[in-house]
Amino acid sequence: MYNPFCIVAQDSIAIAEDIEEKKLLQFQEYFFKALSDKSINNYQKSIENLETCNEILPNNKSVYFELSKNYLLLNKTIEAKVYIDKALNIESSNIWMLLHLAAIQKKERNFKEAIKTQLKIVDQNPKQRIELVRLYYFNKQYTDALSLINTLEQENGLSKNLKQLKHSLELRKGTVVKKEVTEDLSSLIVNFENNQTTFKNLKKLLDFAIKSDVQTFHKYSKLGIDLFPAQPFVYLSRGKSLQMQKKPQEAIGVLESGFDFVIENPSLEIQFYNSLAKSYTRINNPTKAKEYLEKIKKIKI
């Protein structure tokens, strides 16, 4: 029997499916444009394309995630946090989004919250405990850091960096800080030798020695990495020392390792980039040297 209502219903379904398909194609077009813009560092344009995606198909975790990434690349941590929270509300256990949230929290130097996030990450991937050690250290939870290092050592042994950090944390136990009275090199050396667990003593010694006694600077910049493996300043000093000794390739390795410990310190970032540019120039790699000089121009102090 002829049924006009049946035909109308079928047409409606077909039209609805067509509309949804068009929406999906539009969404994909703008989403891939956003990814392309991000790849060429055009973060603001990428954000605009992602906002269009959100209008076409709202409440998409991938869109929120990409928005958060772009805002973080623009150093807009508040906006980055808003969008990653929206993404995690949709899929709370996504490890890549949790890693990104931790990156935002570290950028804000909110180590307490970063630790909470990192613990969720560790639940899924125990290999991420090494980063948890660093966060404990940055949050001055030295007992927790040392305890976790001991656990890692029992399981699989320690890397060179973790061994150095363990040594530094063990020296820190029961330390009594002594007052520094004078600013001459010999007294700075004595102060440091009497209390090798105080980074402030070493920094004052290195700042003084680089201007007055190069051999002393070489000696203590090398020792500094062993004693304070999570302090970027000692890597910068060691890098400068190796440059003075005409060992630019070694300097690059040290500087690149130390840069991982620089957090929200534009002035120190500039010093690292300058030293890296000099080292790459000395090994006849002007392209890499230029890359680091360009990074300096983008830093806002």
Describe it.
This protein is mainly α and 301 residues long. It folds into two domains: 169 residues, Tetratricopeptide repeat domain (Serine Threonine Protein Phosphatase 5, Tetratricopeptide repeat), CATH 1.25.40.10; 114 residues, Tetratricopeptide repeat domain (Serine Threonine Protein Phosphatase 5, Tetratricopeptide repeat, Alpha Horseshoe). The chain has 16 helices and no strands. Helix 13 runs parallel beside helix 15 and helix 14 runs antiparallel to helix 15. The longest helix is centred in the first third of the chain and has 36 residues. The termini are far apart. The relative contact order is 0.05.
DSSP E strands, number: 0
- Overall 3D geometry? globular
Main sheet, how many strands, which sense, barrel?
none
Q: Give Rg in angstroms.
A: 26 Å
Helix segment count? 16
Kindly identify the CATH topology of the largest domain.
Serine Threonine Protein Phosphatase 5, Tetratricopeptide repeat
Sequence stretches where pLDDT stays below 50 over 5 or more residues: 1-10, 174-182
Order of helices and strands: HHHHHHHHHHHHHHHH
The helix/strand class is mainly alpha
- Hey, roughly how much beta strand do the residues contain? under 5%
CATH architecture of the largest domain: Alpha Horseshoe
CATH superfamily of the largest domain: Tetratricopeptide repeat domain
